[in-house]
């Protein structure tokens, strides 16, 4: 029986099959020979090539052209039949009955023809039979008498408009060609090392079950519905899709150490274990598709998934399966893997979007230490995408003037007066609003734009400090403290930048303080040390920011031109009402303050939020405080008002 169809160009090759020669036959009863007294049989089509009428041979019996044509039609190796307007067979040649395994009866032939043509009432077929359409080509799959599948190319040509006759149905067995195409496709769509589906086949399968159309009605290269993916099963469709994207941890070291042959053996063994994991995780007769996407990357695709629990269970099983050591070419190898897990409604995503999120989640799993699975987090992904947007806009934003400075007072604990301010940069982003430094400074340090941004901050802060100084003649001027990134020390001429800012703004060097973290100062030698010494020689003060959270190497305090230690806020937060004086953190802070004073340094405590904290810090000798107890970071006009009230 007929079991598959494709209309138009051959789906397997992407090209239209060659059209058979055009034949038109006069309507007669099937296999019926005209009586001797009947007029000669006149087919309504020209004779096939090589069968044209020839001059009679002397002495031979004369045959009319119609006899020759009828005999050629009957003996033609191509299976052909003449159809009436209803699609019934009115005449068929011997090859037609032989190919389709049916008897000469008109009824059986017509039933076969109807199955070849497709569903009843097909408008395209009716148009050809009635001469309203030029022709029709379809690929059909049938089962022969022995139950073997055979592929047929079915062509229907309309009846000739200027004469009698029916439509011509021609059938060609293309099974051998399809088998060859299937073999070529199998080689092209499978990984030669593991024999798993490769990236191309994986994405083909994934695309067939994602998007608004989903898996309904999708066929592969014109194949029968039973070849659709996923295969039909008893389980009801959930309309969801899941992917476990797996990458081996440290596989490159295996190739580098033992060679690619051993690496290939390991990949094959990994593939075998993943296949067993997928088989064990089958639900409702549907087994996840295991594919090798390239290198040491594998994927398990779960159509009609039941939720994230199914996917995370599958990922956990895969990790457990890989824990046992492998024997690869006599080498005993152990590997772990990282897995990114994504599960969502199939109609709400595309193959590209799903795999982008799976790749991102795999990166998270590796960044978290590897040897684990990580589930896709939309909120985390949104933050990542925002970070990428900000990274692309950082440099242009500097030129557009989107950055501003806020200032937070530095207060003398002894008398409560403001002696300085710390400049804190903000990004007034047109889309995301005002962003704190934590949202963009890390990216700026990665791509180097922090050097350009740092120059702007330095000059703007110096100009503002000079403006406050000029506005308060004869009174004690406050200093401004500016944060300096590590890359500014290494990648720019920081000394020249500072000198240019001071000269352009007229700010005295002693009113400028530069804050560097411990990581920027650790092991200072060569260029960093020379930079700090040159800045100190200019009269600029150097402060170590977040002291106590980094290396806390006290030996460099005596070697570097440092003026101030800024204690990290984590120490100050331990100064709570419920923590009695003399607790461990307070003892540590007191020791650091005492050491700093003996080295001639002043100490600033960050993140002071309560008066009780300020009193205890003052009691152990801390010099300056900074925090919300006195003010949050505010604009320059608020600082000017604070200075006016201070007198």
Automatic annotation (TrEMBL):
Listed PROSITE patterns: EAL, GGDEF
Domain EAL: residue ranges: 387-647
Signal peptide: none
PANTHER family (UniProt xref): BIOFILM ARCHITECTURE MAINTENANCE PROTEIN MBAA, DIGUANYLATE CYCLASE DGCP
Span list, region Disordered: 1-66, 210-234
SUPFAM superfamilies in alphabetical order: EAL domain-like, Nucleotide cyclase, PYP-like sensor domain (PAS domain)
Organism of provenance: Streptomyces diastaticus subsp. diastaticus
Stretches with biased composition (Basic and acidic residues): 21-36, 218-230
UniProt protein name: GGDEF domain-containing protein
């Amino acid at each position: 029986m007929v079991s598959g169809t494709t209309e138009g160009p051959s789906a397997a090759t992407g090209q239209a099959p060659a059209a058979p020669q055009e034949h038109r036959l006069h309507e007669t009863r099937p296999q019926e020979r005209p009586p001797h007294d009947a007029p000669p049989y006149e087919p309504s089509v020209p004779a096939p090539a090589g069968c044209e009428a020839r001059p009679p041979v002397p002495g031979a019996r004369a045959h009319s052209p119609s006899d020759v044509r009828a005999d050629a039609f009957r003996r033609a190796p191509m299976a052909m039949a003449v159809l009436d307007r209803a699609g019934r067979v009115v005449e068929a040649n011997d090859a037609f009955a032989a190919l389709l395994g049916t008897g000469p009866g008109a009824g059986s032939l017509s039933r076969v023809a109807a199955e070849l043509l497709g569903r009843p009432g097909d408008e395209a077929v009716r148009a050809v039979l009635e001469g309203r359409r030029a022709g029709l080509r379809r690929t059909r799959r049938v089962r022969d008498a022995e139950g073997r599948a055979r592929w047929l190319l079915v062509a229907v040509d309309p009846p000739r408009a200027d004469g009698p006759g029916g439509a011509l149905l021609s059938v060609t067995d293309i099974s051998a060609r399809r088998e060859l195409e299937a073999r070529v496709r199998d080689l092209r769509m499978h990984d030669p090392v593991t024999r798993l589906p490769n990236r191309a086949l994986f994405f083909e399968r994934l695309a067939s079950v994602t998007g608004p159309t989903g898996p309904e009605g999708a066929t592969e290269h014109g194949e029968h519905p039973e070849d659709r993916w996923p295969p039909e099963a008893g389980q009801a469709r959930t309309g969801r899709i899941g992917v476990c994207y797996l990458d081996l941890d440290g596989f490159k070291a295996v190739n580098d150490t033992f060679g690619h042959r051993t690496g290939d053996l390991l990949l094959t063994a990994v593939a075998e274990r993943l296949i067993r994991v997928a088989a064990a995780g089958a639900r409702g007769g549907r087994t996840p598709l295991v594919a090798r996407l390239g290198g040491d990357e594998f994927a398990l695709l779960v159509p009609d998934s039941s939720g994230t629990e199914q996917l995370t269970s599958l990922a956990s099983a895969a990790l457990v399966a890989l824990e046992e050591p492998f024997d690869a070419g006599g080498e005993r190898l152990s590997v772990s893997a990282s897995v990114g897990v994504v599960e969502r409604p199939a109609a709400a995503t595309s193959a590209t979007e799903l795999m982008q999120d799976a790749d991102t989640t795999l990166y998270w799993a590796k960044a978290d230490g590897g040897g684990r699975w990580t589930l896709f987090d939309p909120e985390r992904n949104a933050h990542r995408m925002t970070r990428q947007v900000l990274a692309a806009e950082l440099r242009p934003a500097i030129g557009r003037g989107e950055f501003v400075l806020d200032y937070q007072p530095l207060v003398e604990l002894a008398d409560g007066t403001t002696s300085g301010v710390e400049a804190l940069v903000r990004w007034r982003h047109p889309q995301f609003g005002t962003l704190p430094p934590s949202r963009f400074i890390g990216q700026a340090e990665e791509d180097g734009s922090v050097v350009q941004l740092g120059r702007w901050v330095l000059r703007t802060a110096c100009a503002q400090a000079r403006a406050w100084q000029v506005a308060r003649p004869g009174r004690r001027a406050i200093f401004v403290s500016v944060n300096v990134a590590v890359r500014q020390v290494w990648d720019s001429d920081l000394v020249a930048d500072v000198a240019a800012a001071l000269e352009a703004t007229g700010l005295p060097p002693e009113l400028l303080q530069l804050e560097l973290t411990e990581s920027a100062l650790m092991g200072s030698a060569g260029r960093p040390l020379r930079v700090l010494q040159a800045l100190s020689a200019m009269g600029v003060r150097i402060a170590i920011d977040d002291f106590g959270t980094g290396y806390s190497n006290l030996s460099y305090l005596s070697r570097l031109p440092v003026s101030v230690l800024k204690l990290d806020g984590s120490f100050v937060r331990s100064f709570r009402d419920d923590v009695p004086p003399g607790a461990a953190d307070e003892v540590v802070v007191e020791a650091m303050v005492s050491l700093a004073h003996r080295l001639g340094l002043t100490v600033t405590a960050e993140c002071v939020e309560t008066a009780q904290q300020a009193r205890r810090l003052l009691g152990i000798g801390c010099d300056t405080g900074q925090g919300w107890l006195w003010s949050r970071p505010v604009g320059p006009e608020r600082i000017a008002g604070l200075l006016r009230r201070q007198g």
